């Protein structure tokens, strides 16, 4: 696997060897590569070597090729015979579409969650505390994971956790943009402040107030995009 400046990006790092288990090897390879692309451990535009990937993941070529074919079907990699495989760049058109879907579903889930008399925000508070710790320790990957888990909790509390799962394939491009923006300290502080406001509103049952914060929060990618595209032009398309 080769890249240019991407290895300096937060989250960049080696792939994890695929552990043996009941799940098919190709599925485990797919999940690891998808996670690496989503979190920018493998950056947009990177060239992928089957030989290097097989060695890093400790798998044979067959499950690796099956996983790459699935990623190609999802538009996350491009496989050109006799040329090679490259990671797709961030599509701003797909980012915009993913933001629309996420905003529509999450605002609806938040309103439902606020109306549930048994709503419990304890798990949200714990995840927020984890984000604060990760920020203090410079753990951007941990921060991102806690961020995702916190938003998932809104769907859990609403009773529509499946809607969060359904949204994930569309959200990869948006997640890559979010991950690229995270190193800015001011961005992280603002994220924590917004998460605090969302949790407070959920606890109080303030659907309108929480939705207002969520709408601005989810729309951050749109605001980040122009500056990030100028800073990392090789990472973007359309």
Cα(first) to Cα(last) distance is 25 Å
Number of strands: 5
- Which architecture of the largest domain does the CATH hierarchy give at level 2? Up-down Bundle
Spans of at least 5 consecutive residues whose pLDDT stays below 50 are: 1-12
Q: Would you give the CATH topology of the largest domain?
A: Four Helix Bundle (Hemerythrin (Met), subunit A)
Oligomer state equals single chain
Structural notes for this entry:
There is one protein chain. This protein has 238 residues and is mainly alpha-helical. The chain folds into two domains: 5-88, Winged helix-like DNA-binding domain superfamily/Winged helix DNA-binding domain (Arc Repressor Mutant, subunit A), CATH 1.10.10; 91-237, GntR ligand-binding domain-like (Four Helix Bundle (Hemerythrin (Met), subunit A)), CATH 1.20.120.530. Helix content is 66%, strand content 6%. It has ten helices and five strands, in the order αβααβββαααααααβ. The protein has helices at residues 25-38, 50-57, 61-73, 92-114, 122-137, 140-158, 161-181, 185-204, 207-218, 220-231, and strands at residues 47-48, 77-80, 84-87, 90-91, 236-237. It has a three-stranded antiparallel sheet. A two-stranded parallel sheet has the order 4-5. α5 packs antiparallel against α8 (185-204). The two termini are 25 Å apart. Mean pLDDT is 89; it is low at 1-12.
